[in-house]
Amino acid sequence: MRRLFLKTLAAAAAMAGFGIARAQPRTIKFANQNAKGHPVIQGMERFAQLVEQKSAGRLKVNVFPGGALGSDQANVSALQGGTLEMASMNSGIFGSLVKDFEIYDFPFLFANGREADAVVDGPIGQALHRKLEDKGIVGLAYYELGFRDLTNSKRPITKVDDIAGLKLRVIPNPINVDWVSALGANPTPLPFPELYAALEQGAVDGQENPVATIQGAKLYEVQKYLALTHHQYNPQSVVISKKFWDSLSADDRRALQDAASESAHYQRELARGAAAGILEQLKKAGMQVTELPPAEMAKLREKMKPVIAKHSAAVGEANVKAVMAEIDKVRSAK
Question: CB 313: neighbour CB atoms within 10 A?
Answer without folding.
Answer: 10
